[in-house]
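quick q for whoever's on today - can somebody do inverse folding on this one?? i tried earlier but teh output was garbage lol. tokens:
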């Protein structure tokens, strides 16, 4: 018997389902509780600020911010970070874009399997995935030794490549990519948008916006996304 290939909906979080960054909200909460290294936490914000004014490229920003984030949580116990992540998620789940839950419901109803890939830390991303009953997720992971963060990043989707994380989870013949969907807002999402038959650049950053125009990808915003997706999947 032939098993039908899976149609997936690849979902970005930061700037897409959420107006900000879950990872930065978590880092702010750690600093507010005097947990983590303040100097390295500031370095994360500085790298992002430099990118926003065009002083460094997106990959340079990701590398610098990732290194600083890993150093910012070095020495923390994993149980401490997980406890703060749970508190932050209870606040941030209310700040998701209003379309976020209806979008996932619409995609699931169309027969697609949601798959979250985010550069925010796994400790908070997996809480979103559980809240949305999403079985598949990949996010940033920081090395832990004897329950304590070492200051090393094991996995950062924006550096590894989201398409690679997808292929690590599923063999190529297990997915029907031509009928699959992806949504994201930054250059880090371009590789998965390129893979699927239904790519959506959501309120994209300038670099992604230019690429979306060049490749005739759908561009949507918070007011139009549900209508666009309903049309894509016959709703």
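ok took a stab at it. sequence:
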């Amino acid at each position: 018997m032939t098993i039908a290939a899976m149609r997936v909906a690849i979902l970005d979080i930061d700037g897409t389902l959420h107006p900000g960054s879950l990872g930065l909200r978590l880092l702010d909460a750690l600093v507010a509780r005097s947990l983590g290294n303040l100097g390295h936490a500031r370095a994360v914000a500085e790298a992002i600020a430099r990118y926003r004014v065009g002083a460094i490229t997106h990959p340079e920003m990701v590398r610098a911010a990732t290194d600083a984030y890993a150093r910012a949580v070095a020495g923390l116990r994993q149980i401490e970070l997980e406890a703060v992540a749970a508190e932050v998620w209870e606040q941030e789940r209310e700040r998701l874009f209003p379309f976020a839950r209806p979008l996932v419901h619409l995609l699931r109803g169309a027969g697609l399997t949601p798959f979250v890939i985010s550069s925010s830390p796994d400790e908070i991303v997996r809480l979103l995935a559980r809240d949305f009953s999403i079985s598949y997720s990949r996010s940033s992971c920081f090395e832990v030794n004897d329950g304590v963060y070492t200051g090393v990043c094991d996995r950062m989707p924006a550096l590894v490549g989201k398409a690679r994380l997808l292929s690590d989870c599923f063999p190529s013949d297990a997915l029907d990519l031509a009928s699959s969907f992806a949504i994201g807002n930054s250059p880090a999402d371009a590789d998965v948008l390129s893979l699927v038959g239904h790519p959506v650049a959501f309120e994209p950053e300038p670099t992604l916006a230019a690429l979306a125009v060049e490749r005739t990808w759908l561009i949507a915003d918070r007011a139009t996304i549900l209508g666009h997706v309903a049309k894509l999947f016959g709703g």
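fwiw The CA atoms of residues 72 and 112 lie 37 Å apart. also The radius of gyration is 18 Å. so keep that in mind when u check it
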